Amino acid sequence: MTMLVCDISLHLSGFDLLRHISLEVKAGKVTAIVGPNGAGKSSLLKVLTGDMSPTKGDVYLNNRLLNQWPLLEKAQMLAVLPQHTLLNFPFTADEVVGLGRIPHQTGIAKDTQIIAEALELVDASYLQRRFYTQMSGGEKQRVQLARVLAQIWQPSRFGEQFLVLDEPTSAFDLSHQKLTLDIVRQLAQKGVGVVMVLHDLNLAARCADNLVVIDSGVIAAQGSPEEVLTEPLIDRVFGVKSIIAEHPITKRPLVIT
Amino acid sequence: MRHLSAGRLIAILVILLPVVALLSMTVGTVSISWMDTLHAVFGNSSNTQIDTILFEIRLPRILLAIFVGSVLATTGAVMQGLFRNPLADPSLIGVSSGASVGASLMIVTAGGFIQGGALVGLSLVSVGAFIGGFTATLLVYRLATSGVGTSVTTMLLAGIAIGALAGALNSLLSYFSDNDMLRQISLWQMGNLSGASWLKVTIMGLVAMLLMGLFPRDSKALNALLLGESEARHLGVNVQRVKRRLIVLTALGVGVSVAVAGLVGFVGLIMPHIIRLMIGPDHRWLIPASGLAGAILLVVADSLARVVVIPAELPTGILTAILGAPFFVALLLQQRKDV
Description:
Chain A has helices at 41-49, 71-77, 93-99, 108-121, 137-151, 174-189, 201-207, 225-228, 231-238; strands at residues 2-12, 15-26, 30-34, 56-61, 64-65, 78-81, 162-166, 193-197, 210-215, 218-223, 243-246, 253-256. By secondary structure, chain A is α/β, with parallel strands linked by helices.
């Protein structure tokens, strides 16, 4: 069971944002998307999650066209964390995470338990009764992460589950960056397919099973981090000279610039 | 920290509303004692004059205040959620300005026979206000809806544009009206419950029931919408359908309120805001609590309107603002202290 992007193109007000992109997101694997600013990473996520319809091509979720899933069933399988969420109303962290339980009918007791566990997982239990509007950027982003985790906390009877994250670590300090990647790995082990846009190539190399490099709306390379991260590619796509070394412990590629 | 749980606030309001309503029965140009009122209400009064005052004049007026107040406050809460803006109110979608033009047009053109002219018991002004309000909202909604859905931002801008146009039309109508019409127009715009009749109560009551029955269905969707439209969609909310349903219901509710009571300001904007400060933005509690509080505010305001300048009466809309504004300011100050 997968999320499948079949030869999609996206034209918007005269611009080709994406051209002939095909991508397979497997359940239980982590897919990282990297690329320079304006390469089309966010557009690809929007098409992948159904926020935008591609001009050409199709997107499938568990062997069914994405837009043909009933909204509620889709919401039980696919959770999306945007880069920024503008929430101006004084919900507590508890209540924000509780919004992730809207697609489910599991009852208040179960939901309360899941909310507490999700907050605990992202190291935000201490925020439980605090107002979202009074939190720091990193705290807000962690609460939002807990919300999408709560949304796919239990397996769905409709199919494999997927989590899409747009630059989840951008607001985080070192320890919370690591925490996020650990959570992502754990989810993958439980069978969730994770797609995330990352800026830091080394973070991507460390946690991705499949690394997709996007440049000017096309896929420049995709495969395992070892296959994809080469000095010529980084020069070609990012215009930066680099050295690829091996991480002494994880044995993953390490990009030094 | 919130000082009050939602359940407790709603319980307090549920108890307060009938007490306030009963109290309101006793006050007016003719003061009727508690005992006489209770006797009359429970059906063993011998005084027909008191019965007439209570059941033909005051009771419809109080019921109208309850229905109008709750409809204005709940639609206000819904609009603030839909627009993700705590300062939104139903007038944003053009319903008040449209209703104003409709009412003014009737006052100016129908002029002389305004008292006599009536459509199945409703004054022409009411009918004009309703048609004006509903038309303006549909226009704003149409302008903001394209193939990809309704844009809330465009709707806000279209609302401002239609509001400005309606304001100009209103000024134009005022410019061409005589002193008597001018007074009628400005009195109507202040909002008044003195024209209450059982017919108006029935219509308004049916509309209020309809809204109270249908709004709870969309409470969770409104909560999700506070995160943003795309986030709500990913939580399984059919955003376009929810938007259309809530806008039509709001236009209907506010349109009818304005038709029977004129422009009663403040309730729709501030009441949900006050409740949100007390129990938070969860629409499952916010909407019913706002409805109850709006009803109480309007009953109290209307009771005062009847007694402060005896034997004359003040327009209700003036009192809602005089009562609500200081309370709101006090809450803001308290919140500032808590931060």
